[in-house]
């Protein structure tokens, strides 16, 4: 039997490597013979509802969970072997590396089950995985034992042994940080050097002659292609570090046979990639700090505006170091960047140019932000809204899986549903129309009621066949939608706003009405892209500045980009809830 490790739920199993078509009912059918099951959940993408390839099964009794783990691990469901392990609520246990070993140089036929069977003799295994891609095994894997003693026993016994006629390396698992630290230590005592830009005629003998003056060489190699031609680089391995260091110092940049040599410490591919990544990140940070507060993002540009025109429009506000309209081929993409020499100049340009009409379009001007920064801001706004609504007891926030309709679809709402949207005044048999007093959004979230029609209250005013008011759909954010009052009907008919929204129309409205007007037009556009999440996404995007929202209504490309960012935030939040909940 597989004893439970420390920090693990008493009867909760993780089931991975699932076929995309595997459902909860299929898992229940397979696992219920092991014992009574409390719950099963296949984790799915929040937007597409597609399986993420893993599930959690909670048994009533720990012994039943152990039985399932012992007897059903690597069973085939839908042609794919599943992988079972104890559900790990404490990620620190996994990240600590205690009891975790690394195996490499595995033969391609060794899969998860074969690795499990091979190492299970050394102790209790909490998890076991051969790393694979679309082409199959990548030749390495991990085994996590319950105790460090079992891991050490496996390392002593299996390191250097043959598995399927291939000698394997078995060692203690090391984090990336630990591996990078080791490489740094090794770099201080290197003996192997890399030489490139060699003349094509230089062979091993010629390379040795070049470097023999610096000390005893253990090996010399010129790399060649499949045709036997020199690839113009090679390696020289010295006996002592001091000799290798002197060779690098004296020969790097030296001209040999009309070519300038590059000579440096030989690095493994992983080390080179890590070093290049660090250099790239440093360059990125330097660039960001250099442009912080001075680089402006300008969009909604006319197709006729080029770099020179963009620079000219912004030049009155300061010294411009660069101005660039982004293009695709020879066509403008409708946005660009203007960089000033100081933050004060950039701030002045934003204040003066945002909303100004250049050509035929009002510009949107703001400080340029990285995608990560925009996503972080959107995440913070969403989390703030989420926490606020939960504190207020919003009725639609009970389940993250269900769409939170900040904007509800424009469809007739029968009186039977009125209680769902909040307290509703008693229905009057005769419709009343308030034609001269536009409705205002209430600041009391969730308390405003749909407006009703009653012709009896305005006897001196003739009524047309239709009259318009606005109704608040309750409980979530006090967002209004226009309604049509038809005499003889007990409940209003809600219709979407179809009139194009202009900056002048928005400016004429009260501040609390402006978001409503934008939202009424934004919701159906988002609903066409992501129906189930349209309410949440609309509510998130309404946190953005009104001038940018107007541009989003005009530009499908801009709207799509913002919707995708919001969708990524929602998916990230769902993933966090999945992790914390199981």
Give a nutshell description of this structure.
The chain is built from 18 helices and 27 strands. With 582 residues, it is of the alpha+beta class.
Outline: flat
Strand content: 15-25%
CATH class of the largest domain: Mainly Alpha
SS-based class: alpha+beta
Strands of the largest sheet, in order across it? 2-3-1-6
What does this structure look like?
- The protein is α+β, with helices and mostly antiparallel strands and 582 residues long.
- The protein has four domains: 12-175, Alpha-Beta Plaits, CATH 3.30.70; 191-265, RRM (RNA recognition motif) domain (Alpha-Beta Plaits), CATH 3.30.70; 294-368, Alpha-Beta Plaits (2-Layer Sandwich); 388-568, c-terminal domain of poly(a) binding protein (Orthogonal Bundle).
- It contains 18 helices and 27 strands.
- The strands form nine sheets. A four-stranded antiparallel sheet has the order 2-3-1-6, with helices on one face. A four-stranded antiparallel sheet has the order 8-9-7-12, covered by helices on one side.
- The longest helix is centred in the last third of the chain and has 26 residues, at 556-581.
- The chain is flat, with a radius of gyration of 34 Å.
- The two termini are 23 Å apart.
Outline the fold blueprint:
Elements: E1 12-16, H1 24-31, E2 37-44, E3 51-59, H2 62-72, E4 76-77, E5 80-81, E6 83-86, H3 91-96, E7 100-104, H4 112-119, E8 125-133, E9 136-145, H5 148-158, E10 162-163, E11 166-167, E12 169-172, H6 176-187, E13 192-196, H7 204-211, E14 217-224, E15 230-238, H8 241-251, E16 255-256, E17 259-260, E18 262-265, H9 269-291, E19 295-299, H10 307-314, E20 320-328, E21 331-340, H11 343-353, E22 357-358, E23 361-362, E24 364-367, H12 371-391, H13 418-421, E25 467-472, E26 480-485, E27 493-494, H14 503-508, H15 511-529, H16 534-541, H17 546-554, H18 556-581
Antiparallel strand pairs: 1-3, 1-6, 2-3, 4-5, 7-9, 7-12, 8-9, 10-11, 13-15, 13-18, 14-15, 16-17, 19-21, 19-24, 20-21, 22-23, 25-26, 26-27
Helix pairs in contact: 12-18, 15-16, 15-17, 17-18
